Amino acid sequence: MIDRFEGDYAFLSNFWPCTIEYDGVKYPSSEHAFQAAKSDDELTKLRIAKTATPGDAKRLGRIIKLRPGWDDERLQVMHDILRIKFSDPELRLLLLATKQKRLIEGNNWGDSYWGVCNGRGSNHLGTLLMKVRNEIRESKKSAGSGTR
What is the CATH number of the domain that holds 13? Predict the structure, then answer.
């Protein structure tokens, strides 16, 4: 089990620096992309893309006007963004190297939706990461079993 996305596993965090192109905009982290996806306003998306850190993007994402239906779409949006993030060959290898370990976004800042805090939480981020890892494995199997 990996119960924190830090140290050797910091790459699992949405704060990890990586270029994510989502809806035609380039972001410096998956956190930036996710926070921007909360809005349907192009200027807001660009403003979030230009924030200096993922933490700044997250803070801005907390105060913007949410697009209609956001709560129903946020898990699929995160899944899509994680697929983009782990399409990077180096990050994909790192994710695959976690083998079958359970991935838990343990935290001490009270996030029980995306992670687990004080033993409680839904761990949606960890679950989506494991789903993306399985999708990568399945696609490798499919590619390796081509027909003649």
Answer: 1.10.357.40
